[in-house]
Structure formats: C-alpha cells, structure tokens
C-alpha cells in the first residue's frame, strides 16, 4: 500500500514537471515570435503628402489692378526623386507656367509646355526675367500686402497650395507680342528684370 501511494505521488510530481516545462517552452516561443516580427510602421516617405514634398520659399505676386501679373519664389523639392509642376491655378485669374527665351535678339515670354522640373532634393527659381507663374487676366485687384492663394498641380496629380504676398514692383512690364509670345522691352531686361521687389 505504501509503495503504491509513493509511486502515485512520484507520477504526479513528474507530470507537473513535464506540464510546467511545456508551458514555459510555449511562453518562450511566443516571446521569440513577437520580437522577430518585422515592424509594420509606414515609412515617412511613403506617407509623405504633396504639401511636404514641395515647398515654396519667399513667394510673392507683383501688385496689379487688372491685366497680367506674375508670381515668383523658389520651388523646393524635398523628396529623393524629380518632380514636375505642370500647372497653376488661383481664384484671382487664369494662370499659366511661363519661361523666358531669346528670339530675334529679344527676350520673349512663352508658355512652359513641359512644366517646371524640380530635381531631387533641389530647387527651381521663379523670378522676374525668368520662369514664373503668370496671371493672364486679373479679375480681382492684387494690392500690396494682399495674400493670394495659388495651387500648383504636379505631374502625379497631387496639388500643392501656398500663399503669396502682393508687392509693388515696377519691372517686368509684359505685353503680348504679335507672334503669340510676350515681348520684354529693353528697359526691362538685364538688371531691372532681375531686381528684387520693393517691400
């Protein structure tokens, strides 16, 4: 009788030891699998919005009551790949992307048909006498100090809104040339065309 009881207790202890070891092993496996599982957090590059992909430094608009005017500034590409601005819009006027080219000894403005390409981690300057955002027919006067909202559209379909401040500027008095381009008169070429606006 004594032997049977002792044997039963021994089996019970052995069983508890095996079960405990199995439970501990199971816990260990669970911990290992959780630490080895790759992170599912989204990379900042993947979730990057167009607004952070492209920024505009020192944006301003030449003050104008009517007719044509233009917006300037520096477009900055904050991504690791080239980006292209294909169009611009504003409630103030219909807009076009414009460039300056030399034609028959004169600087002529014309639409930039391929848009403005911003190199990876680079910038593209918009300035009087150079590339710019053209307001074709101002419906609402732009006074000095006014804030004008402009939205750029990128080639991937995303949009980048920004605000430019109206500033008085006597240079870059543009007018359409008969051939469809825009003629920059001699008085607005050279230093005058590239001067900074007055505050």
Automatic annotation (TrEMBL):
<keyword id="KW-0732">Signal</keyword>
<dbReference type="InterPro" id="IPR036182">
    <property type="entry name" value="PCuAC_sf"/>
</dbReference>
<feature type="signal peptide">
    <location>
        <begin position="1"/>
        <end position="25"/>
    </location>
</feature>
<dbReference type="InterPro" id="IPR007410">
    <property type="entry name" value="LpqE-like"/>
</dbReference>
<dbReference type="InterPro" id="IPR058248">
    <property type="entry name" value="Lxx211020-like"/>
</dbReference>
<feature type="region of interest" description="Disordered">
    <location>
        <begin position="165"/>
        <end position="199"/>
    </location>
</feature>
<dbReference type="Pfam" id="PF04314">
    <property type="entry name" value="PCuAC"/>
</dbReference>
<feature type="compositionally biased region" description="Low complexity">
    <location>
        <begin position="33"/>
        <end position="48"/>
    </location>
</feature>
<protein>
    <submittedName>
        <fullName>Copper chaperone PCu(A)C</fullName>
    </submittedName>
</protein>
<feature type="region of interest" description="Disordered">
    <location>
        <begin position="29"/>
        <end position="48"/>
    </location>
</feature>
């Amino acid at each position: 009788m004594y032997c049977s009881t002792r044997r039963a207790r021994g089996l019970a202890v052995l069983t508890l030891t095996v079960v405990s070891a199995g439970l501990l092993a199971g816990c260990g496996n669970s911990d290992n699998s959780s630490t080895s599982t790759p992170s599912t957090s989204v990379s900042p590059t993947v979730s990057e919005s167009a607004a952070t992909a492209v920024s505009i430094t020192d944006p301003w608009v030449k003050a104008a009551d009517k007719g044509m005017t233009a917006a300037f500034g520096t477009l900055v590409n904050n991504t690791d790949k080239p980006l292209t601005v294909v169009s611009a819009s504003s409630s103030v006027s219909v807009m076009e992307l414009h460039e300056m080219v030399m034609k028959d000894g004169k600087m002529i403005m014309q639409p930039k048909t391929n848009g403005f390409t911003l190199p990876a981690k680079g910038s593209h300057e918009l300035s009087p006498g150079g590339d710019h955002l053209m307001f074709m027919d101002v419906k609402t006067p732009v006074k000095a100090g006014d804030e004008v909202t402009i939205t750029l559209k990128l080639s991937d379909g995303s949009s980048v809104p920004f605000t430019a401040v109206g500033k008085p500027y006597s240079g870059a008095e543009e007018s359409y040339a008969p051939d469809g381009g825009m003629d920059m008169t001699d008085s607005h070429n050279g230093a005058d065309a590239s001067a900074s606006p007055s505050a």
